[in-house]
Design brief:
Blueprint: H1 20-27, H2 32-48, E1 52-56, E2 59-62, E3 70-72, H3 74-91, H4 94-100, H5 102-107, H6 112-121, E4 135-139, H7 147-150, E5 152-157, H8 164-185, E6 191-193, H9 197-211, E7 218-222, H10 234-243, E8 247-251, E9 257-259, E10 262-265, E11 268-270, E12 272-275, H11 279-287, H12 293-300, E13 304-305, H13 317-321, H14 324-327, H15 332-341, E14 345-347, E15 352-354, E16 360-362, H16 363-369, E17 374-378, E18 388-389, H17 395-407, E19 412-416, E20 422-429, E21 432-447, E22 450-458, E23 470-472, E24 474-477
Parallel strand pairs: 3-24, 7-8, 7-12, 12-13
Antiparallel strand pairs: 1-2, 4-5, 4-21, 6-24, 9-10, 10-11, 14-19, 15-16, 17-18, 17-19, 20-21, 21-22, 22-23
Helix pairs in contact: 2-8, 3-15
């Protein structure tokens, strides 16, 4: 739930942004003893809240929670929320477009096994209203006046998103520990905890249950329980929701049964499933001999959030959504959001296409000639795997990467390399305290109720929790105030 105070009609205009220098100036006033004390409290709070990442069955590491929070204004939060909703609505058009258009099918390749799941869930192409809860990974520099121009969505993640709990916990820790320190240094620098990301997920599940006519709400959090790896967060989320009176249980997809027209696990009945596994994960289970008939039945009965249409969140979706074929299905506001905030992206194949200026070019020759402006990444992989930055590659390395990509068309995308912004974060190393540059990436999740942000930071340009990245708590200013003054 949002804890931002409402703005009265007579109040001053809403803040547009909080300047980086304003926040940094406050952080610079904290001495080494102060940072060591803050670090001890933040680290202890992260440990108490189990903000951990499982690298293997017997090994886990505590996720670093930054001593520098991110600060958004209500104006920024509403802007990011609106863009997210525009992109989510546009993404729901991808499967109907795939059914109708052979070129879209080529740009968004799916396997025969995936096609079988889609056809089982949507017989004769009849697609019920789909509910998604996803995340847009984006670059943005919120601390400058031109922050809207820096906001670029580099990936869509519309099914099986992780780390929602990290965002929730980091926000609370920042609110409880860091915000009072900032207010102590400057009584006019008032911040508040922003929307509860776990409540946004729960609200989405409740809305879906209502839409499909469920009289009750018994939730199954679907997670592969055969391995303890990654952000193993569903048991923690379930405990939080149960403390709020929610009927929820974590369940492995292989343990589900379809009995008497109900999705069950033992004596538990589930009205809606919220899933972590992607379709690729589920198919891998089938390849290993596991039976997932109940999971297929849940998709067919539209009992799963996110629905299967979220599986078309390929990197190539950015090309499809900015194409003329998509434009005719979108509103003017949606087209403007996509035009302004999606970087130029093309699925690698032998083709003529348009460059960022709208000129017709040969895709291979354009990619060869503009190495320093571009990057290559797998069309469907995630976690920063397989990314080649043209600006960091030698000409020979770039040629080799292009040759490999064009040898397997439709498996890779070439994308405009948008700037990845950095801030100086306080780092405590024994008795020493340094302000070290870290790159930032934002993960926005939104519903009509609000916005949740997974704020990640790392020393390298590939920013992912699986690669030792950390998280920052996100706070918001009050509706008005003096936060933008330098």
């Amino acid at each position: 739930m949002s804890h931002i105070p409402a703005q009265s009609e007579s109040a001053a205009p809403a803040l547009d942004y909080v300047s980086r220098s304003r926040l940094q100036g406050l952080l610079d006033r904290i001495d080494a003893d102060g940072y060591r004390a803050l670090n001890e409290r933040v680290t202890a709070a992260g440990r108490d809240r189990e903000v951990v990442f499982y690298a293997a069955e017997d090994r886990k590491r505590q996720i670093q929670i930054a001593l520098r929070p991110w600060i958004f204004t209500p104006t920024q939060r509403e802007y990011f929320r609106t863009v997210y909703l525009h992109l989510e609505d546009a993404a729901k058009l991808l499967y109907p477009m795939l059914l109708e258009d052979p070129e879209v099918r080529a740009l968004l390749p799916i396997s025969d096994e995936e096609r079988g799941w889609f056809e089982h869930a949507f017989p004769r192409g009849r697609i019920p209203v789909q509910t998604l809860y996803g995340r847009l990974d984006a670059t943005v520099d919120p601390g400058i006046a031109e922050w809207r121009d820096t906001f670029k969505v580099i990936e869509l993640n519309l099914s099986g998103i992780g780390a929602a709990y990290y965002s929730w916990a980091a926000g609370r820790i920042a609110h409880d520990i860091l915000a009072p320190e900032l207010l102590r240094l400057d009584p006019t620098f008032a911040t508040a905890y922003v929307d509860d990301g776990l409540e946004l997920i729960l609200g989405t599940i409740r809305d879906h249950a209502h839409a499909i006519g469920c009289a009750r709400l018994r939730i199954g959090l679907v997670q592969d329980e055969s391995t303890l790896a990654g952000p193993y967060e569903f048991p923690t989320i379930a405990a939080i929701w149960r403390s709020q009176g929610v009927d929820v249980r974590v369940v492995d997809p292989r343990a589900l049964e379809d009995r008497d027209g109900e999705i069950r696990c033992g004596d538990a009945v589930f009205d809606v499933l919220y899933r972590d596994p992607t379709l690729e994960n589920l198919i891998e289970m089938e390849r290993e001999g596991d039976r997932l008939a109940a999971m297929k039945a849940a998709f067919e009965r539209n009992r799963v959030v996110s629905g299967l249409v979220g599986e078309l969140d390929h990197k190539g979706a950015l090309e499809v959504l900015t194409s003329a074929r998509a434009a005719r299905h979108l509103t003017a506001a949606q087209r403007e959001s996509l035009r302004r905030h999606l970087p130029w992206t093309r699925v690698v194949r032998a083709a003529h296409t348009t460059d960022p200026a709208g000129r017709t070019v040969d895709l291979y020759e354009y990619a060869r000639a503009h190495r320093e402006r571009l990057l290559l990444k797998p069309n469907r992989d995630y976690g920063g795997s397989g990314v080649v930055f043209g600006g960091e590659a030698t000409p020979a390395e770039w040629e080799d990467a292009l040759a490999a990509a064009f040898a397997e068309p439709y498996g890779t995308v070439v994308q405009e390399a948008v700037p990845v912004y950095s801030d100086r974060y306080p780092v405590v190393d024994g008795e020493r305290v340094e302000h070290v540059p870290f790159y930032n990436i934002a993960g926005f999740s939104a519903t009509p109720r609000g916005l949740a942000t997974l704020a990640r930071m790392a020393r390298g340009r590939i920013i992912n929790i699986t690669r030792d990245g950390g998280v920052a708590g996100v706070l918001a200013t009050a509706a008005t105030g003096s936060g933008t003054r330098d």
